[in-house]
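Student: Hello, beginner here. Can you help me understand the protein record under this note? Any guidance would be welcome.
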Amino acid sequence: MPENEQKIQIIPLGGIGEIGKNMTVIRFGDEIIVIDCGLMFPEDNMLGIDLVIPDITYLIENKDLIKGIILTHGHEDHIGALPYVLKQIDVPVYGSKLTLGILEGRLKENNVTLNNPVTIGAGDHVKIGSFKVEFIRVSHSIADSVALAIETPIGTIVHTGDFKFDQTPVDGKVTDFCKLAEIGKKGVLVLLADSTNAERPGTTPSEKAVGDTFDDIFRNAKGRIIIASFSSNVHRIQQSIDTAYQYKRKVAILGRSMLNVSCISRDLGYLNVPEGLIIDIDELHNYPPESTVILTTGSQGEPLSALTRIAMSDHRKVTITPGDTVIISATPIPGNEKLVSRTIDCLFKLGAEVVYGSNSGIHVSGHASIEELKLMQNLIKPKFFIPVHGEYRHLIKHAKIAQSLGTPKENTFVIENGVVLEFTKNKGTVAGRVPSGIVLVDGLGVGDVGNIVLRDRRQLSQDGILIVVVTIDKEEISVVSGPDIVSRGFVYVRESEELMENAKEKVRIALDKCQSEGIKEWTVIKSTIRDTLSKYLYEQTKRRPMILPIIMEV
C-alpha cells in the first residue's frame, strides 16, 4: 500500500465516558497492541455484581493479531481485568517492575499464570511488531507510572496514561519534561490524554503536601492513629511510614490488599521501611496507643474492608477507643459518598477524632488539573487529539481546552467506546464501530449475568417474591392440593393472613377458569395464575412482587 494511503486505527474498548475500565486498541494492518486492561467497580443498581470489565469480543475475534498488552501503571482501573482477559488471550504483557509485581499478585489470587511478562522502565524503547514504543516517566498516585510514545508507520501516537505534573514527587522522580518536549518537537500525530480532572482549575497539589499535613496531625495526636488509604498509593504509604518513624510510633498494617502491596513494594525496593518499625497487628497490645499507627484499607467505605468493620465494632483485632485519630486519606469515588459518610459517622460515635474531606489536606489527586492539561498539550503539540479516561463532561471540557490552545475542532474527537477512529498522515475519520460494552463479574461467573438478571434482582429488592405452589391432576386439570403461597420480601405473612387467603382464592378461580376452558398447557396456566394474582395484589398493595407459579402434576 502506498505510504500516503496507509491508515492506523485507534479503538477504545473502555475508559471513554466513564471512570475506570480503561482499554485502548491500536491497530496497523494485521498487528494490534492493547494499552491497559482495567476494571470498573459496580454502580448502585448492579445488585450483587462484584466487578465490571470491558467487552473484549473484538480482541477475541482478532487474538492472532495481538502483539502485546502494554500497562501504563498498576491501578485496578488499568490492570484489574487482566485475570479474566489472560484466560482467553495469551500474549506478552509489558509493564514496569512494580506494575507487574502488583499484577502477578492479582493473577495469583485468580489462579492465572502470567506466561510472557516483559519488564520495562522509564526511558526504555521496545519494538512490538511494527510499533516502536518508548516509555516516559510521569507522576501519578502510584510509583512507576509511564506515558507512551508509540512510533508507527503513519506517525507517533502519545498516550499519557494517568498523570499529573508533580514538581516535588515523594520518590524524587520528576516527570520527564525534556522527553515530552522532544517528542512534541519531532511531531505527534495523535495525543490521547487523561481527562479525569478536566473540570478542576489550576494545578493539582504535590503529593508532598500530604506529608506536611501528616506531620501536623501526628504532632498533635494524643492517642493511636489509624490511616485509611488506597493500598496502591505507595507514596502515601511511604509518607505514613516516614512520619511514624519521625514520631517514634510503630506501624501495623491491616487489610489484605494493603499487606500485599506493601510487601511487594518493599521487596521490589519501592518502599523504604526502617528496621523494626513494622509490627504484626497481634502485637499492638504490647505498645501504648500513643506509640502506634495502623495503616488500613477502607477509605471508600467498602462494607467488608478493615476500616468499615472497625467502625461497626465488628473487627476481631482492632477496636476504636476515645482518643483515637482516624485519617481517611482519600476522596470518595463517585457513588461511594454514602458508604464513606456512614463510616465517618460510626467512627465519631465511637469517640474517634476523624480527619477527612478535600479541604483537610490529607489527600491530593493523582490527575492533572486544567493548567497541567494545557501544559501537556503545549509540550506534545499533536495534530489530532482524543480525550480519554473520564466521563462525557470531562471529555467535552478537555476537548475545549485543546481547542483553546489551537487544535482545530475538526481534529478533536470526543467519541464513545467501540468507535473506530482511522488516521492517515493528514486526516482523521470515524470509520465504524466494533463490539464494546460491559461484562459483569459475579462470583465465579463472568458474563453470565446480564440486564434481565439485574432487572429481576432489582424487582426482588423492591417488591419481593411470591411463590405459588399447586399440585394438579394433568388429565382432569383439577387441583389435588394447594394452592400454597410462600412470601419473601413482600409482606409478613402472619400479619397479612387475610391478604394471603384472598390471594389463594384468586388462584383457585384462575385454575377453575383454565379447567372450564379446557386449557392444559402448563405455560398458559402459569401465565393465567401470574396475571390474576399480580392484578389483585397491585389493587390491594400498589406493589408488584415477582410471582413464581410452580405446578406439580400427578
Summary: Residues 497-516 form the longest helix (20 residues). The mean pLDDT is 88. The longest strand covers residues 478-488.
